[in-house]
Amino acid sequence: MIPTVRKVACSLGLKYYFTGKPCKFGHVEKRITSSGVCVACSKWSTRKIRLIKEGKWETYQQATKERFHRTGQKEKIKDYKKSARQDPIKGPIIRAKERAYVRANPLKYLFAVARKRARKRGLDFTITIDDLSIPFHCPIFGVKIGPVGSKHAPSIDRINNSFGYVPGNVKVISRVANRWKSDLDKEHAKRFLIYFENGAYR
C-alpha cells in the first residue's frame, strides 16, 4: 500500500506516496517522494521543456489556457484553496505562510494586487515588475516606508488617474499618502493646506 505521508515514503525508500488531495494545479495523482511534485505535473514539466526546445510552447500555452477555463479547473482549485483557508488547522498555517511571503516579496505582492485591481476596473495594465521600485522614504511625506500591512506600507500610485497602470504613470509611495491623494482633489488639497497654515493644528 502506498503511504499517504512523504516522510513515511522517504523512510521506507519508496518512490511515490499518495495524499488523496489535489495539487495546486488540481491533479489528484501520486506524488514523487524526492520532490513532492505530483506525477501529472512532472510529466507536464518534461513536456514543457520539449515544447520549448521545439519552438511550440506559445501555441501549447494558449491551447492549455482555453482548456483550463473550459473544464472549470480554475473554479475547482479556487474552491479547494478557499476551503483549506477556512480549515481550523490548515487555515492559520496557510495564512502565516502567505503573510511571510508578502513581507519577503513586497514588490511581487504590489504588482499582483495592482494587476487584479486593473482587471476589476477595466484599466490598462502594461507595466512589468521592472517598472516598480520601493523607495526607502515616501516621496510625498518623507516617512520611512514600512512593511506591507503597516500604516506607511508601500502602495502603487497612478500619477495621472486618467490613465491606467502604464510605464511612466506609476510610482510607489506610502499607503497613507496614496489614500490622501485618492480622497483629495487639487481644490480640496489647497483648502486643506490653507486650513493647516492658518494654525488649525497648533
Descriptive terms for the model:
202 residues, Herpes Virus-1, 2 domains, two-stranded antiparallel sheet, 51% helix, 7% strand, elongated
Write up this protein:
The chain is mainly alpha-helical and 202 residues long. The chain has two domains: 6-56, no CATH class; 106-197, 2-Layer Sandwich (Herpes Virus-1), CATH 3.30.40. Helices cover 51% and strands 7% of the residues. It has eight helices and four strands. It has helices at residues 6-12, 39-54, 57-70, 73-86, 90-104, 106-121, 175-183, 186-197, and strands spanning 16-17, 31-32, 154-158, 170-174. The strands form two sheets. It has a two-stranded antiparallel sheet. It has a two-stranded antiparallel sheet with strand order 3-4. It is elongated and about 80 Å long. The termini are far apart.
CATH class of the largest domain: Alpha Beta
Structural class: mainly alpha
Q: Radius of gyration, Cα only, in angstroms?
A: 24 Å
Task: Return the CATH topology of the largest domain.
Answer: Herpes Virus-1
List the helices and strands in order: HEEHHHHHEEHH
Mean pLDDT: 85
Major sheet strand order: 1-2
User: What fraction of the residues are assigned to beta strands by DSSP?
Assistant: 5-15%
Distance between the termini: 76 Å
Number of domains: 2
Largest sheet features: 2 strands, antiparallel
> Care to count the β-strands?
4
Helix content: 40-55%
CATH architecture of the largest domain: 2-Layer Sandwich
Residue ranges: pLDDT <50 for 5 or more in a row?
none
